[in-house]
Amino acid sequence: MITIRKATLADLESIHEIEVLSFNQGSYPLFVLRQFYDISNDYFYIAEHQRNVVGYVLGNLTKHLNQGWMLSLGVHPDYRGKNIGKLLSETLLEALESSFSSEICLTVHPDNSTAIRIYEALGFENSKFHDAYYGVNEPRLLMKKKFMSKPFNT
């Protein structure tokens, strides 16, 4: 059985392993994941199977823009195709929407058709293509999902 919960510091090495398996050279270093944990822990979730981390999702909320971001999503190769990415994404979307985000954005490599299908099934739409989002030969598709507009509780 897969369980989704908030990430803890003890999970970071397992998350980093999945990050490297998912993104190879483009993966976040462990120290960056630690910084994300410190900054965005309200939006950092893991999927667990038999007490092992098998996936994660990392998001953030930019309050002044009323905009949430899915910054990274990874599932261990042995657990792909089991809807874990979808479960993690749905958990993050619910957290961001309940935090009064009016939209959530993400970037995805245009060749990552599996991820794009998941995001489209979750209601994301193509917003803009960037041919050098992370630099030369690093294209990304910006995708957005709109929520009902809600003001922040101040």
Automatic annotation (TrEMBL):
Q: Which UniProt keywords apply?
A: Transferase
Listed PROSITE patterns: GNAT (PS51186)
Q: Is Transferase among this UniProt entry's keywords?
A: yes
- The superkingdom of the source organism is Bacteria
Q: Which GO terms describe its molecular function?
A: protein-N-terminal-alanine acetyltransferase activity
**In this protein, which residues make up the domain named N-acetyltransferase?**
2-148
Presence of keyword Nucleotide-binding: no
What name is this protein filed under? Answer: GNAT family N-acetyltransferase
Tell me the organism.
Answer: Gelidibacter salicanalis
